[in-house]
Amino acid sequence: MWLRWGFFMAIYFLQVMFLISLIAIEVAAVGSLPMSNTQTMQQPAKGSQRLNGCENCNDGKEREGSLQRVSSGSEDSNRSSMDEQKPGEGVSHICQLDAQISPVKLKCRQTRQIRKKKRTGELMRQDKETENQMQAVVIQRSKQLNTTIRGKYGIWRKEYENPNSDSTLKLMRDQVIMAKVYASIAKTKNHMDLYNSLNKRIKENQRAIGEANSDAELHKSALEQAKAMGHVLSEAKDMQYDCAVVARKLRAMLQSTEGAITALKKKSAFLIQLAAKTLPKALHCLSLQLTTDYFLKDHGSKETVDRDKLENPTLHHYAIFSDNVLATSVVVNSTVFHARKPEKHVFHIVTDGLNFAAMKMWFLANPPADATIHVENIDEFKWLNSSYVSVMRQLESARIKEYYFKANHPSTLSAGTENLKYRNPKYLSMLNHLRFYLPEVYPKLDKILFLDDDIVVQKDLTLLWSIDMKGMVNAAVETCKENFHRFDKYLNFSNPKISKNFDPNACGWAFGMNMFDLKEWKKRNITGIYLHWQDMNEDRTLWKLGSLPPGLITFYNLTYPLDRSWHALGLGYDPALNITEIENAAVVHYNGNYKPWLELATIKYKTYWSKFVKFDNPYLQLCNIKLMIDP
Fold it and tell me: DSSP strand E in 291-439: where?
């Protein structure tokens, strides 16, 4: 055994020695070869690094390797020279060799380094530009996302949604419709057993469906109910299916459903108009409390107003015509809050006789800081009489009284609701039309800013007085977008009086925040133009609704367009407005039925208005105003 083991060890030793000799021969052969082009190109670069910092060279082995590559002698001479050299002498020798590199090669090396740095900088800049472009695209796409659409949103792509997610629900609804058809036919043919069975299944299906909008919301027994209904329908079809009879029944059901939908739409329109025009109980309470205190405390004889400020044309004057105390207070509070110099702002408030005491009492008890408030009663403007004012003369007409005050109108909701919104006495109210008599109301002023009572001011409005109106009388924000809100929306262009004088594509504009140049007003006799057209429309054939159509006519070609950022509209009817535009606007306007003090108001828009309501006020607490606005 030992002999065998010794034999194997001898063979192994011979194999190892043979491999070592082969490796030695291979190394000698490689060492004797000349340097390749790649090594030749790489050598100056390493020399350049040592030339730039020979004093920092510390690795003796690296220096010896460099000497081997630059030496032109044999391998033996290289080894002997390396053994004789000291570390310091090797470094100096390397630096001398590097210094011998030609200037051309050195220049090329420096150029390559500069080009490399430049390319690196360009790539980094391109990466940054690409990142910025991607961010811009993402931001733009996010702005285009319509978040107001009520639907189903998720992280999954639309094509991966289950197309049959409500198949059972649709089936059950269709079964109910067909069951009603067959039940009606069964009753006419006196098949009472089938009739009763179908009615029973209809009730059970309707109970299982409930208010579900998808299969997941159905009652757990819904599938069984659908199967049971399917059996009954199959029996009914076998017994009495007649294509012509079924078609007639379905057509009758369709007509009946359409009639019901039309009636509901009319009822809804009536109720919305009623809710929008009805004074909430809390606001009625507020007016009563303020009026009571005004007379009990005899504030009528205590009022002191600086008359010089009321007629000083160098100050900033506002006109607010309203019978709503709380809404007017929000307009004043928000304007004063954002004014840089409140002492230069004068508010001229005109209300009716019913609310005069309440309005006066509110601002006596809650005067805005430094600003001037003057409240007037429209009933005391004696020059407003039927001989001069078209609206007052029309109110005395029997035909107008019948139209606006429903004298002989049908009493049901479904009948007589045509053009319901036009039949509102508010549109003939003098507070609504007093804006066309501004020079008569304020004869000593040069400019005045008209504000509706359903607006909120979000910025300082002082700059409006410095705008050059280019000789125009009215400055307002235009409301036309593409083909919407142009003159043909408000005026009857089938009437030649309108079609011959106005352009149907002329851009409309909004009342609510308007700067009026009263000097130009007087020069152009604007009130006379208004009276002329108001008299011509006594039969309501030129326009139907409110004060905007006569305003468009009166100020035709006399309106200076303001930038849209001054006046954001639609908070009283459009729930899909751009929030950024609202927050950046100087004035936001709740035009429409959904006023912020009503329960109808759009919830997400309420805060712009409610933050200027002083809920800690004793009058507001007494009448539970906070509960009304934020139930």
Answer: 316-321, 345-351, 372-377
Q: Count Cβ atoms below 10 Å from residue 459 Cβ, excluding itself.
A: 16
Q: Helices in 165-305 by DSSP H: which ranges?
A: 167-188, 192-209, 222-240, 243-277, 281-296
Q: What letter does residue 152 receive in the DSSP assignment?
A: -
Short-list 449, 476, 442, CA closest to 465: 449
pLDDT, position 422: 57
* SS3 category, 79: helix
- The pLDDT tens digits for 361-398 are 999 999 998 999 999 999 999 999 888 888 888 777 76
Which residues are CB-contacts of 343 (< 8 A; sequence separation ≥ 6)?
370, 371
**Residue 162 three-state SS:** coil
pLDDT tens per residue, range 319-332? 999 999 999 999 99
**Nearest alpha-carbon partner for 583 in 570, 594, 568:** 568
Q: What is the identity of the amino acid at 315?
A: L
Determine whether 145 is exposed, middle or buried from the number of CB atoms within 10 Å of its CB (0-12, 13-18, 19+): exposed
Residue among 327, 385, 319 nearest 355 (CA)? 327
What sign results for the dihedral spanned by CA atoms 616, 617, 618, 619?
Answer: negative
Residue that the structure tokens 């004063």 belong to: 336
- Which residue is associated with the tokens 């262009």? 493
Maximum CA pair distance of the chain? 146
- The answer to whether 598 and 617 are in contact (CB under 8 A) is no
Cβ-proximal residues to 458 (8 Å cutoff; 6+ apart), any chain: 334, 338, 583, 585, 586, 587, 588, 608
Q: CA nearest 349: which of 382, 377, 312, 385?
A: 377
Residues 479, 514 contacting (CB under 8 angstroms): no
Backbone angles phi, psi at 373, to 5 degrees: -120, 130
* Distance, CA of 373 to CA of 360 (rounded, Å): 9
- HSE (CB half, 13 Å, CA atoms) of 345? 27
Residues of the chain with pLDDT under 50: 1-5, 26-95, 97, 147-161, 407, 411-416
Give the 3-state DSSP-derived string for 496-519, with helices as H, strands as E and coil as C. Answer: HHHHCCCCCCCECECCCEEEEEHH
> Cα–Cα distance between 416 and 548 in angstroms, integer?
25
Distance CA 373, CA 336 (A): 11
Contacts of 420 (CB under 8 A, 6+ apart): 269, 270, 273
Length of the chain: 631
Beta strands 447-451 and 567-568 are unpaired
SS3 label, residue 136: helix
Contact between 565 and 585 under an 8 Å Cβ cutoff? The reply is: yes
What is the strand order of the sheet 372-377 is part of?
372-377, 345-351, 316-321, 447-451, 513-517, 474-477, 559-562
Residues 6+ apart with CB under 8 A from 506: 486, 487, 552, 556
Written as six digits, the tokens of 513 are: 């925040």
Answer for the pair 480, 559: CB distance below 8 angstroms, yes or no.
no
Looking at this protein, which amino acid is placed at residue 32?
A: S
